[in-house]
Each structure stands twice: as C-alpha cells, then as structure tokens.
Records
---
Amino acid sequence: MSRSSCLAGIESELLTQYWLGELDASREALFEEHLFGCNDCAARLQELVGIADGIRALIQNGSMQGVVSKNLLERLAEEGLRLREYAVVEGGSVNCTVAPDDDLVISRLSASLVGVTCLDLVLSDEEGVEQLRLHDIPFNADAGEIIFIPSIAYLRTLPATTMRMHLLAMNHAGPKQIGEYIFLHTPWPST
C-alpha cells in the first residue's frame, strides 16, 4: 500500500491495530472520528480488510501457511473456524493429527525471545532434512510464543511421521537455535 494524501499522516500500522481491535478505547474513538471523515483512510482500511480476507481464504483452503498473531487467531476462532491447537514447550513433543472437520491446525511454539531481532522458522523431517524455511518471521518477544499455521491440505496427505520445527535467531555470527519442537503426526483413522 502506498502512502495516501491524508493530512493526518495515519500509518498503516495504526490501521492494522484498529482492524485487529488492538487500540484502547480512547485511541479507538479518536481514530474512528478521523476515519469516518477521511475518505483516504477509509479506502486504505478497506484495502487492508480485503487483503486480510484473501489471506484468511488461502489459509482456510490449505493453500497457505505462516506465522500469525494471537489477535488474528482469536479473530478466526470468533468467526467460527474449527481450530485444532497443539502447544509445545521448547524441547518438547506432542502427538498430533487432523480431523476431517478441522479448518485449521495451530502450532503454538513456546519460546524465550528476549533480545532476538530476527527469527527463522524451519521445518524438517525425521532425519533432519529441511523441508521448509520461513525467513525473518514476525514475532512479539513479550508474547513468549510463535503461532504457526501449517498447510492443512499438506497435513492431510501425511502418513504417520515425525516433523521437527526449529526457531533460529539469526544474527551476524550465524544462526542460534532458540528451540526445537517435535510433532508426532498420526493420520486420522478412515471411516
């Protein structure tokens, strides 16, 4: 999105915070007062909502995977999506599956991210062969976790298998492992 001609200089981050419901009541009221009188910001907000709707549709049909915020996850749940969540502590493992009526599978990776400035998420198979790497993922160090949504379409095709996720802090000295998480996947029993 390009910068609009709005004289108030409303940033895209503020639009996003408003849409996600992250503003306190007083900031929200001030923003809404501006929004209802500014065609440029209203149009930019509508673009943001359109992008988010497209991303949501891609996630829901299994075409996309990625790291999401807690607020987006809560919003998807509020919209009635059936979420299957697996929380794993650093160094831990979890038995997991995908039911036929699940809309999304959520991997919650607990991690201490204090001092981390750049983070990669790596998925590897049982032998340690890298299958996917997400570079420079978004994260909130204070949240204490990374929320990853894998492709549900891909998960449904897997036989019984072990997948590993790694969080790697990236810096000038090279990658430093922040955490390893093991997912012991079992296919849903066929009927």
---
Amino acid sequence: MSLFSALKSMFSSDNSPSEPVPMQSEDYKGYSLTPSPMADGSQFRVNGTISKGELSHKFIRADVIATKEACAQEFLRKAKLMIDQVGEDLFK
C-alpha cells in the first residue's frame, strides 16, 4: 500500500446509506405503508413504500432519525399525511 493510499483510507469513510430493511406494514385508508428505515451512519433515513393494489410509490426523505423504530414511526406519520393531502394522485 502506498503512502497516498494509506493517508486516503485514514481520512475517508463510507457514509453512504445502506440497503433499507422493510419492517411490518400498516394499513391506512386502503393503502399499505411499509417503513424501511435506511441506516445512514449512526442514524436512520426516513424511507419506505406506499402501495395500493398493484400501484406503489417509493417514499424517501432527507430526514435522519436516531433510532430505527422512531424512524419507522416518522415514515408512517409522513405517509399518512401525504395520503390525506394527495390521495390517488400519489401514483401519477
């Protein structure tokens, strides 16, 4: 390993989000909400899927939350709000 490679590895880190792991789905007004918190460093990014029948919408936000469970709850809160505001137009 060269000196440059050693220095580069010391000062760089891979902070990219990891693959999300789907959690238990919840039904809301005919929609299925599946939180999938995405590990991002030591926190979790709000992420999940809203689906109804054959239609689905990938839902990801910039918010990062300290725990996986709190992140899942925040996804559910935001997804329900989006359904109430947008409804079926969510899939356009």
---
Amino acid sequence: MNILQLNPWNWFKHEQGSEAAQIPVQKNTTEKNVATGNETFHPMMRLHREIDRLFDDVFSGFGFPNLGTNSLLDNVRAVAYQPQINVSGGNNNYEIELEVPGLTEKDLSVEVQGDILLIKGEKQESEETKDKQFYRVERRYGKFQRTLALPQDANADDITAELKNGVLKLAIARKSVEQRDIKKIAIH
C-alpha cells in the first residue's frame, strides 16, 4: 500500500458554511456511556437540548404549546435542504454516497470543474390541494449544491455515478501521483 494514500484530505474546503478548517474523520456524533450504556451527545448538543427544554418549561407556564423537538436548530436545518454525504476511499478509488431520497436522474447534476466536483440537485415540492389543512410538514424541499475538492490523486476523467434506492453513489478512480523531488537541507 502506498503510504501517501493515507494522507487526510479536506474534501469540503470549498463549501460555504462548512468546517473548512477541520477534516471530518468521526463516523458517529454520539457515543455510548460505558457505565450506563446510554447514548451521550457532544456537550454543545446537550447544552442546546437543555436550553430548548428550559424554554419549553417557561412558555408552557403561559399556556403556549410545547415546542417539543422543533428547536431553533431544527428550524434552521429545515430551511436549507442539504443531503447527507459519506466520503470514503480505498487503494483504487474514492467513494462518495449522497442521500437523495425521492430524486431521479433528471433532478441531479454531477460536474467536474478543474479539481472541484459539483453535485447539484433540486427536490420539488409536491402539489398541495386546497381542501387539506396541514398540521405539520417535515419534508424538505429546495435546491442544493455540494462542492467537493478533489485530491491530487483523484482521476477526474474516470468518475462513475449510480442512483439506487435514494442514494447517489460516485466512484472516483485513483491515479498514481509523481513523487516530488526530495530536497535535503544541510544543518550547520
């Protein structure tokens, strides 16, 4: 195995609002507490949930309905439709999986511009009838664009895409990259 293939790469450095300074390497955001076996969340998420609970308690005292899980963070997420993505790689290729339930090939576009991979799509809102009153709508609609920076060893000419069961899978072949000349620095 080539040791250079193990170098981390920040795929998301071109996306606005992403954690460009961080390379996401964790698979799960929750952990199991060894003693109790219960899930524990990141401290900021626990703080967010506790603040939501406090607001629910205060407003319910004035007769307002409980906000429940519809927190401010959930409302912000509902405005922007951004499909979840997994990026992985092996010796021969990189694999990208994007959750796009309800979308067809016509709704999606995959483009390469230089060393940038653009995945665009639009989820249309279904027609609503005038005789229905909606009490809650949780389905998300809108346009999205994921912008991924391709690593140096990604072969932009050898990318395949497949849409199956609401998951868009991209396979990007890896190519060998010339090693740069090593320059020895003398120590005086």
